[in-house]
Design a protein that fits this description.
Blueprint (H helix, E strand, L loop, with lengths): L1 H8 L31 E5 L27 H9 L3 H12 L9 H34 L2 E7 L2 E6 L8 E5 L7 E7 L5 E5 L1 H4 L5 E4 L18 E5 L11 E5 L2 E5 L4 E2 L4 E3 L3 E8 L5 H4 L10 H34 L21 H15 L7 H19 L13 E2 L11 E6 L6 E12 L2 E3 L5 H15 L15 H6 L7 H4 L38 H13 L4 E4 L6 E4 L3 H13 L1 E6 L3 E6 L8 E11 L7 E7 L5 E7 L1 H6 L9 H13 L3 E10 L1 H16 L5 H12 L4 E12 L3 H10 L3 E5 L4 H10 L8 E5 L11 H7 L3 H21 L7 E6 H7 L5 H9 L3 E5 L3 H15 L2 E6 L5 H6 L2 E5 L6 H5 L2 E3 L4 H41 L10 H11 L1 H10 L5 H6 L15 H26 L13 H23 L5 H23 L2 H4 L5 H6 L3 H28 L3 H10 L2 H4 L1 H10 L8 H24 L3
Parallel strand pairs: 15-27, 15-31, 27-30, 28-29, 29-30, 31-32, 32-33
Antiparallel strand pairs: 1-8, 2-3, 2-4, 4-13, 5-11, 5-13, 6-7, 6-12, 8-9, 9-10, 14-33, 16-17, 16-26, 18-19, 20-21, 21-22, 22-23, 23-24, 24-25, 25-26
Length: 1235
Amino acid sequence: MTRGRIRAKLRRSNLYTFSCLRPTAAETEAPHSFQGPGYSRIVYCNQPRVHRKKPLNYPSNYTSTTKYNIITFLPKAIFEQFRRVANVYFLLAAILSLTPVAPFSAVSMIAPLAFVVGLSMAKEALEDWRRFIQDMKVNSRKASVHKGDGVFGFKPWQKIRVGDVVKVEKDQFFPADLLLLSSSYEDGICYVETMNLDGETNLKVKRCLESTLPLDDDTTFKDFAGTIKCEDPNSNLYTFVGNFEYDRQIYPLDPNQILLRDSKLRNTAHVYGVVIFTGHDTKVMQNATKSPSKRSKIERKMDQIIYILFTLLVGISLISSIGFAVKTKFQMPDWWYLQPKNTTSFYDPERPALSGVFHLVTALILYGYLIPISLYVSIEVVKVLQATFINQDIHMYDEETGNPAQARTSNLNEELGQVDTILSDKTGTLTCNQMDFLKCSIAGTAYGVGSSEVELAAAKQMAIDINEPDSEVSNVPVRKTSARDSWENNGSGYGVSEIELETVITSKDGKDQKPIIKGFNFVDSRLMDGNWSKEPKADVILLFFRILATCHTAIPEPNEETGSFNYEAESPDEGAFLVAAREFGFEFCRRTQSSVFIRERYPSSRQPVEREFKILNLLDFTSKRKRMSVIVRDEDGQILLLCKGADSIIFDRLSKNGRMYEEATTRHLNEYGETGLRTLALAYRKLEESEYSAWNNEFVKAKTSIGADREAMLERVSDMMERDLILVGATAVEDKLQKGVPQCIDKLAQAGLKIWVLTGDKMETAINIGFACSLLRQGMKQICITTMNSDTLTQDSKETFWLLMTDQTVKENILMQITNATQMIKLEKDPHAAFALIIDGKTLTYALEDDMKHQFLGLAVGCASVICCRVSPKQKALVTRLVKEGTGKTTLAIGDGANDVGMIQEADIGVGISGVEGMQAVMASDFSIAQFRFLERLLVVHGHWCYKRIAQMICYFFYKNIAFGLTLFYFEAFTSFSGQSVYDDWYMLLFNVILTSLPVISLGVFEQDVSSEVCLQFPALYQQGPKNLFFDWYRIFGWMGNGLYSSLIIFFLNIIIFYDQAFRSGGQTADMSAVGTTMFTCIIWAVNCQIALTMSHFTWIQHLFVWGSIATWYLFLLLYGMTSPTISGNAYQILVEALAPAPIYWSATLLVTIACNLPYLAHISFQRCFNPMDHHIIQEIKYYKKDVEDRHMWTRERSKARQETKIGFTARVDAKIRQLKGRLQKKQTAVMSPS
């Protein structure tokens, strides 16, 4: 408690130059002048009730992410169901079934429709109920709110109103958008983590107005009043314009005083704030998009097939009605037994047209079996079972968190198998937000023998590829010696050392494993345990460690358990540097208002020496400066400027005599960069007292100036000091990727998927991660599209003016960059050349405008990888929409935070990562997984399976219904279009419900063309989905043609056989019921044998369902025939007495079944022999066990079965192999040329 108060007294603003420090008269600046639309918000502080009434009437703080509510559920859910064309048809059929012209009873039409629609609506309601429960958890969170008379009490978030004064404590989320009034720190500074908004893990410093600093206790709000006039609710996270009227003065407000909802208070005991925006007016909710209704491509295409079948239905119904009208007019008067003179208008020879119209309605209902209503129910059942298998997959269960994969909606299972582009968040999705100090370069010497994850995986992959006897490297022709011998030659040529791309050493001298230290993964005995003092350049190493320990803005906190310190740093990098300094023996232990204290341990003394470094100035890091400096006075009175920053910036500022180690350090930096490490260069400069005093006077002047150019003045003065530096060395930290991320990206790339990274992080960070997960690699040409470079344009006020150029000029410049880059890609002749597009959020604002977005998309599609930095949640959603609509291909968005919700909802498929960042992304997603690496299995295995299962299932469904439905039409034509059905009503009812439903469901749930292991070994199989090989029009019409052929064979072969043949032993011919039952038996056999031929993977379940369905038909016929003739009618004892004793019944069934399935059998046999698909080849290899007996062939086939890719480890390895191959060929050419 005491320690907390001491820390709170520290004026944190003294640590900052640009972001927090302000002139003493800064608040005398003129308030913002604004009026008109967009700036009408008025907030009366501490008077929440005023805002509930008109004219203000601001919304409450209640938020909702659900698709429906109690009022809208029925109309919206019913609308969703009747977007399906088939459901509209069955609704019309159900209405018509109430009329006398219906061939069936009304119940038989209405009941199935009600069941199908009701089941689907219940599923939608359940999924939305889960979203509602999650919303209620958020809305019911408690916050401390001023209730009056200086008393604070807890209220649920949803009851907070605009104008309320809220007290937020450490590690709590802000319940609404607040104006910061004061904090537990004396000068009103607080730390905020905005991970949920922009994905950044580094803490942002916010500061209140000096005028509200005294409001630092509950009781001070008793009489607090003020008025805020500001901008209206909008989605821009990084801007805010407003004025605060308090104590008869008006103060300007900017984003530094605004605390946004869903940000978290860190490293600060508490803050007070007044609510400006609530609920859906908050910036995070303004960035949210409505929960869309998503439908898969297959479902949308299914509607088109329904249209085709409906057209066929109307066509044959018209033929039937015209035929009926003709028969009624010309032949019915001669049919005396029908009593044509006493008939109704349904059969009136005098009005045949009217009779034809009535018969059209009858026909439309009768032939309705062409359009299968049970298709939707079967698909719903199959998708729910598929989702269950996804949920139960043990390979996608994360043991650390206990989270399994979850299919939150089952509507999009098959869409998982058709993804073309993945749009991924970075922080928390690809990375763990953990930095580890791994390597360093000091005085031109590289230290750190440990390997990054990237190095380990790349070296492992190289070893595999190079040792394969059929690899590209080993196929290089050599004279008089084998390829293998040439590799083993350790002479002066390119021997084994050339192949060892990375020297991977985990620990040479690690006799006993030390406990893992978070943030420190450095291994090198030359620097550890005080051994650095024995190195040749020990004085430079000492300075290196001191820069690490002093050049920062962190605060140390004693750790009672370990006896050392934890560090509250603004960024994970800074924390890693301090941990490294501590482990090297330079422990940062205390900070006062003007000094930092370092405990330095030397081998010569047992006790550490505590040294004080007085902080004279701190020039903090900004994304524009790309560096940070601290000016200190050591105990000897020497003034030093210690600097760390991006190598390009530091190297430009080195003095002539400070470049001693530049060449070696540059080489090391390139090596570190190639292995995906984040690098910074360290430098210093000694200052004379007089030189420092003169500069400090200038600096103080700039610091206390008032005006728009204050920032530019400060930067110019800082730049004067950060010159003539002497290079000390460089650091390399690893941004720890989540487990398996590089391998997952490599596999997805081999599967032919494109991967875009959309992040709120800085460009440098994003690029480093790109290298770490092999989205970027050395040799890849980077195309950076930015607004005009401001680094060189801020030297004076004239050049600052040029930055304020018109939007049109900026747009033209960006368009020119895009056009030039596109042209460069088109003109590139090297087939192996790879391009990476990198663009920031500011530039993206212009690139996404209507007149430029298609050019931008064209460029992005031509690049191997795309990284968008500094993007807002809204921009993530807009980029996703552009890719989705611009390419017309399936997009998948994956993220873990609230800032990813818009992108997740906008994409065709949204995947949420159930990590440490709350559940907002998961709640908005269609699928959730615990880690990014599980995406590989979700897509390459489950996506591939689900796509093929659903596609084959739908095609088969249409086949069997066409085969069945058209026999009704043929019989109609055969019987003068009388409306007579050849089948018993019970047969027709059971056809889709029982006799053919279970086999098709087993096809949709259990079918596997190849096993999950093979899917992962042959990722190129995935491309069958994006190329839509199993649900294109060729295949759909092929199945329809098969149905047409089967219907013709079933009807006409049976009619030919039974027409005038003796059926019984007594010589009688078959009646309609016998012919109809035989035809129906042939249908049951034909369609069930067809599905058996379609299946690649049989379990006992498929056998039970397929052959059990046929057995069920005979069992039903037996039991149905045993019922009373009043129920069974003409089918009484039909199997026992009529069909079973007749050999012609069995022979006809066998003949028709073979004739129906023979063409399909011939087709698949021909295809497997002469034009096999990828999975056919794999199936044969597995069947003949060649994968075990002939590993060489299996490996060769595996290497073939990957899409050619320019990203991932495989691409990196391939590039290195090409490089080595080129060297070998040059060497061999040189060796062979003398002979």
